[in-house]
Design goal:
The two termini are about 25 Å apart. The protein has a seven-stranded mixed beta sheet, with helices on both faces. The chain has helices at about 15-20, 25-30, 40-50, 95-110, 125-135; strands at about 5-10, 55-60, 65-70, 80-90, 115-120, 140-145, 150-160. With about 160 residues, it is of the alpha+beta class. It has a domain at about 5-115: Aminopeptidase (3-Layer(aba) Sandwich). The relative contact order is 0.16. It binds coenzyme A. Coenzyme A binds near residues 87, 88, 98, 99 and 128.
Length: about 160
């Protein structure tokens, strides 16, 4: 059931949750990221609060934080928002929560006049690709990219016209 899935703006008190989820082994693996410290997230939240280009939300099931979704490119004039990242606690995968959260962001962007949402994901991240495809995103290009963990990965750009 996804009836209780809500997005709320990230605030200072979310640093321990972001530290926890973003050090989960399977999430680090899926994102090709490196482990981080709590202070990295405290600093990131402070930076985001000053940055007009980006908005970050905690995905909540009722009151409980279960994920993070971030959007950027919001200060550009091209009316294209980028889905920077979606991460959901591994215990909550494959229940439609990713699709619900992405659809909420799509609705928000439509309401404020955006014409397109784009994102990058790994070609072999089948769960993420299925989630985005079900929200209407289509692959428009592919590329190779060196990731934070040093791996070179085949990636795709997906796009949704609003
Ligand atoms: C990607 C992510 C955000 C998706 O969230 P989620 O809540 O698990 O996604 P959903 O349940 O809404 O949709 C996933 C779909 O993929 C399908 N799926 C799962 N594994 C799959 C696979 N190996 N191949 C194809 N489809 C798959 C699921 O069945 C589901 O489709 P359904 O609704 O028709 O059953 C989440 O899995 C996550 O946090 N992953 C780790 C971080 C990550 O990779 N983020 C994306 C970076 S771009």
């Amino acid at each position: 059931m996804t009836d209780n899935i809500k997005l709320r703006a990230v605030c200072d008190k979310d640093a321990p949750f972001l530290f926890q989820i973003m050090n989960s082994e399977s999430i680090l693996d899926a994102l090709n990221e490196l482990p981080t410290q709590l202070c990295d997230w405290e600093d990131a939240i402070k930076e985001w609060s000053k940055d007009d280009d980006e908005e970050d939300y905690i995905i909540c099931d009722g009151e409980s934080p279960i994920g993070w979704i971030g959007i950027n490119n919001l200060s550009s004039n091209d009316k294209t928002a980028y889905l920077k990242l979606v991460a959901i606690l591994p215990t909550h995968h494959n229940r439609g929560i990713g699709q619900n959260a992405v659809c909420q962001v799509i609705d928000m962007m439509k309401q404020i006049g955006y014409s397109k949402i784009a994102l990058y994901t790994d070609l072999d991240n089948h769960k993420a690709r299925a989630c985005y495809s079900k929200c209407g995103f289509k692959i428009i290009d592919t590329l190779e990219e060196e990731m934070s963990n040093g791996k070179t990965v085949s990636r795709c750009i997906m796009e949704l016209k609003l």
